[in-house]
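quick one, 187 residues, struct below
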Amino acid sequence: MRKMRKILYLITIIVILAFFVAPQNLYPIGNEEFYILPKESQNALNSLYKKIDASKRNIKISIYTFTHKGIAKQLKKAARRGVKVEIIFDTKQNQHDKFSMLRYLAKYRNITVYTLSGFPKKHHKKGIMHIKAATIDDKVAIFGSANWTYSAFRKNFEILYITQNYAIAKKFNKAFERLKQKAKLYQ
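---
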């Protein structure tokens, strides 16, 4: 877990530095896309929607907070096409949030929803599942600081990175499967 944290930290620093050194019109570059929110929110959302629309087999998501109805509708459309969608939500953050997409998405066929807490801390308080990442068809990886909320895409300073780097997607898929084994199926 430390190694993954270090890798994500280094990637974040490199990408942020590249943003300030390189002209903005260089993004996206090939199979890599990097967005600074909220300035590039619409481009980031459009790209995310296109990736979901192009999915053929599966979408795996680990997300702390997910209240963005537009993204949820795109996932619902993918599920209707037969794409298997699996989402791990943080337990505490989504249990009582009336705007969480957890209950909305859990009712659809081909969408499986899980909840997960982090490891217990002192005095029996649990940690959180704070990952904000996804893969599409085991080859596209999407991650960054942004939760999938309207605030993240409209108000907050966030980053969103989309890559077709197979090694990154594979690593996230392995982590996702480990998380899923610890998660509870939401019903």
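The two ends are 29 Å apart (CA to CA).
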